[in-house]
Write a structure and sequence with these properties.
This protein has 163 residues and is mainly alpha-helical. It is built from five helices and two strands. A two-stranded parallel ribbon has the order 1-2. α1 runs antiparallel to α2, α1 packs antiparallel against α4 and α2 packs antiparallel against α5. The radius of gyration is 17 Å and the shape is elongated.
């Protein structure tokens, strides 16, 4: 079936941009799910602060995920955030099942946000070659993720005895 939404981009730019947006959407959906899993199963002395910090990460991933999905739709590429697609295509580390201590949670979430940032940066460059509007969207996401990365790394440093 032909797409009911036509792209303002040429077909090559649409293909590149659509792929970059889909890969980013998958990572953001997974990041929101990982953060919620951690949120529900967190235990330890720092429960409240980390619990609230995880909700902030969920909100960040969901808000930007929606923006990414809507950009894909706007260029005629149907976004796919279904559980099977996310499970198959994510590049983020798997979060452990069951209750997880506050220290292990901070270290795991810090690593997950690191992975999300590492995977996003090349996509920004790819998008820049194909569509400056998508590049701008991903730059904004990159700023937000890198701020989150800094905050999670600052917490993780305390658990690793670096401060």
């Amino acid at each position: 079936m032909a797409t009911p939404i036509t792209s303002p981009l040429d077909s090559g730019a649409t293909d590149i941009t659509g792929r970059v947006l889909q890969e980013t959407l998958v990572d953001l959906v997974d990041l929101s799910l990982v953060a919620k899993q951690a949120h529900w199963n967190l235990v330890g002395r720092q429960f409240r602060d980390i619990h609230l910090h995880l909700d902030e990460l969920v909100d960040l991933a969901r808000e930007h995920g929606d923006n990414v999905a809507e950009r894909a739709a706007a260029i005629g590429v149907a976004p796919d955030g279904r559980a099977r697609t996310v499970g198959r295509d994510t590049g983020l580390p798997e979060y452990p099942a069951g209750y997880v201590s506050d220290s292990d949670t901070v270290l795991a979430i810090s690593a997950t946000v690191d992975a999300a940032v590492d995977r996003l940066r090349p996509r920004i460059e790819q998008a820049g070659k194909a569509d400056p509007l998508t590049e701008d969207l991903l730059i904004e996401l990159g700023r937000a993720l890198e701020e989150a990365r800094w905050m999670w790394q600052a917490q993780a440093a305390g658990y690793r005895g670096e401060v």
